[in-house]
Amino acid sequence: MTISQIAMLIAMSIYLLAMVGIGIKLSNKNETVNDFYLGGRQLGPFVTAMSAEASDMSSWLLMGLPGVAYLAGVSSAGYTALGLAIGTYINWLIVAKRLRRYTAVNHSITLPQFFSKRYHDKKNILAFVAAIEIVIFFIPYTASGFAACGKLFNSLFGINYHLAMVVSAIVIILYTTLGGFLAASTTDLIQSIVMTIALFIILLFGINTVGGIDNVLDNAKALPGYLGLTSAYDPVTKSSTSISLLSILSNLAWGLGYFGMPHILVRFMAIENEEKIALSRRVASIWAFISMAVSIFIGVIGLSMSTHKKIPVLHGSASETVIVKISALLSSHGTLFAVIAGIVLSGILASTMSTSDSQLLAASSAISNDIYVGFFKAKVSDKKLMILSRITLLLIALLGVFLAWDPNSSVFGIVSFAWAGFGATFGPIVLLALFWRRSNMQGSLCGLIIGGIMVFVWKLGISKLGGLFGIYELLPAFVIALIVNIIVSLLTQAPSEEVTKEFDSICKK
CA-CA-CA-CA torsion for 435, 50, 331, 303, nearest 10 degrees? Predict the structure, then answer.
């Protein structure tokens, strides 16, 4: 291992140890399950905003998004980013405050629990079904994060992929298990800062390496369709391919996913004061827009660097390591630059860890709190439930490691499917539960089930027909689940007076 690699590894190791240290420091603040999963609803506006966005973006921001831009140009990545930016803002604008208010009134600490308490579902059937779907979609989502860590250390240091992935998973498990939601949110704030620093270091270094922004743009303009809004670049044929309206809608549809992301929505539930949500919204929206724009441009810069033979030409899923390759080049300029490169690579770790910790908590709460206690009515003390929650978190992480064992898996592909799953499953019920008085338990239950089923049916079956059916599964599954929810609600008994009174009292505030 070279001196520059050692310097990078030391910088990254210090970062990882710092995250574990935060988990240890905050471990004594978890006296109840409410503390472990929701931080006692004491998050400040900046921590709320940045932890929500850091847990949202994941390794997709620093690996998946620039990788797509590197291969095919700005259109596909750009429309996806635009949809996400719009979805981020609208989610904060219309969902955050009402969800915080509703969950505080009915004492919900998880999203599945909110569903059951919203409709006074005494048997917790809604919570049970929602919890099952959280486990189904979060385990592969978590696996994508572990895979990203493995790819990072393997491509940079030549460390065995499986060893790197397991060690990274252990670090995430340690600080999340020890510190719970508060540790996850605090580290997410730090990780969002590290991610931002990483993006701008790579941006400036990449531009400088190829001789200025004009050279970057000239290289992009020379590639047919690369900068087009209705076209894309085909790296195999080196020609332009048209982007259909269907493809544009598919990419924009990513924004719908925000309404159903448990690990993001729980941040709304945890903020200390609903009046501070406006500030959180501004911070989160601005950061999301800028970070995604920079990430896409790094993909463009990376391709220019490959053209100028500064980094290797990357094919297929290897394009997701473009920032890693640029960091390796940066480290070759001396020890100081190697340390800076280590900070950049810690940004990739940060993007991965900030999502994985939140997903582990959400999946753990689904099993221990919503299924074991909520549905099966198990009588356990808070202390025993805390132990159970931590054991559950560990088992889910082990499943994630198992699913991430294949080093050739695509981070973008896994995230895309899981994102669709949550968006279509939980998005419609969240919106109707918060904004439609006539919504009832039967409609919500059918919507939950149909949304989850349709994601699989569309992805694995209908989409194979091509043409109009090739649309991103999130959009049709979301629409179908929404329609089913509304129709079943109208065809079945209206919610009780007790349920509607509670709805009216919250909406009038």
Answer: 30
